[in-house]
Amino acid sequence: MTMAQYDLVIRNARVATAADTMNCDIGISAGRIMALAQSLAQGKSEIDAAGKWVTPGGVDAHCHLDQPVPAPMQMADDFVSGTVAAACGGTTTVIPFAAQVKGGSLRAAVEDYHLRADGKALIDYAFHLIVTDPSDTVLREELPSLIREGYTSFKIYMTYDDLKLNDREILDVLAVARVEGAMVMVHAENADCIEWLTRKLEAAGRTAPRYHAEARPMLVEREATQRAIALSELVDVPILIVHVSGREALEQIRWAHAHGLRIYAETCPQYLFLTAEHLHAPGFEGAKCVCSPPPRDHANQQVIWNALACGVFQVFSSDHAPFRYEDARGKKLGGKEVPFRHIPNGIPGIETRLPLLFSAGVLGGRIDITTFVALTSTNPAKLYGLYPRKGTIAVGSDADLVIWDQGREIMISNSMLHHHVDYTPYEGIKLASWPQITLSRGEVVWDGSRPQGRTGRGQFLKCALADAARPVMHSARCKFDGTVQS
Ligand code: URP
Ligand code: ZN
Ligand code: ZN
């Protein structure tokens, strides 16, 4: 009898990476990819993937799980349900956010977030930070030391009262990012414009969910995107603009690229598959699609598709922000149909992110498979310091893989999903594929019908500094000498 040489062999795979496609077997042992070749030796177990695309497991680099939010709001997904849902949709790494409370310690936020996460996840996870209060202690001690300990990216907000930074504070945190080599993610919307418009709408009695979109027109996103780019240029440090919704913000990003600035950009399924019309649903139902920036119109969906196809975006994330609809801790805050100002922002999408893009994007002929892999896995792994352990199919990388079932026609319904949200904004959308198997470090975590594996097996990942976060050294422009000003 011949001895098995691998723990698992996936035979006859149509392997896709961000660079190449190839037909080969994948040999896996001890959770890692050991060999990529044709006619590999035997494995203790084998999966025949003949004719099926095999892609790297998804890296969802923007999702919110069990994030502390002001009471009575509460997120519906913790690290158990959120990572199970992710795995069932082909994602094998998540990067949610450890959020500083204004006036509180950033390190305490990280410690609290580990208590929420460790021992619960089905798949591997890292943390971004959210900096809401760049005090001297945060700028000089907590942020630099946390970056050095493996929390190498953080998000900042230009809107939301409990989160936003002013321009001077943004410059301060960008300066720390430049010195330490961290990646800064920016939520770009102009808070004062939103507040001014919100008050006008409220004075006119316009408080239904659909007015959320009127309070956040593209102009407020465009202005903040342009300002974030200018602040990044002043400090000479790259930034990543998250959840870009349409043409106007994209024009600013294209302008930055044309001027040699290192500005990265992310978009999300809601800007491809929803429009502001979804906020017009009868009664209070529009609250289900309240997120920021809001979905735009069909013309803007096309603009986002075009930008995905031609390389303006580097990342496609879910921005999963799970609030239940029929819940006093969710969209009906306090048990009421509240004015749009008080509706918790965000929509679920951690499980549907990859199938939506694979089906409508790759199988729909809008993007090629290598672009799909780059956007959903390789680029986020590179930008946030997890590559090449995550984000690719290569010898030595973790065996995080998705085998796609292309014959599987599915109509999305909330009943088939594994999150703890009581709706999906993508109800009724038809898909031409779904993951047949998801593997995390060589273990099946989704078998096409059910999640598999023990929750708690997911490992915390420390992130390295990403090359992508390095300054471009615009010496003529750089006005920052590398010290944090007091
Ligand atoms: O509406 C959204 N996007 N909510 C989640 C939080 C954020 O801004 O990413
Ligand atoms: Zn945001
Ligand atoms: Zn978000």
The profile of the biggest β sheet is: 8 strands, mixed
How helical, in percent, are the residues? 25-40%
List the total number of helices. 12
What's the CATH class label of the domain at 58-381 and 463-469? Alpha Beta
The overall average pLDDT, rounded, is: 96
- What's the β-strand tally? 20
Would you mind describing this structure in some detail?
The protein is α/β, with parallel strands linked by helices and 486 residues long. The chain has a domain of 331 residues: TIM Barrel. The protein contains twelve helices and 20 strands. Strands 1, 2, 3, 4, 5, 16, 19 and 20 form an eight-stranded mixed sheet that branches. It has a seven-stranded parallel sheet with strand order 8-10-11-12-13-14-15. Helix 3 runs parallel beside helix 4, helix 4 crosses helix 7 and helix 7 runs parallel beside helix 8. It is globular. The termini are far apart. The C terminus is likely disordered. The protein binds N-(aminocarbonyl)-beta-alanine (URP) and zinc ion (ZN) (2 copies).
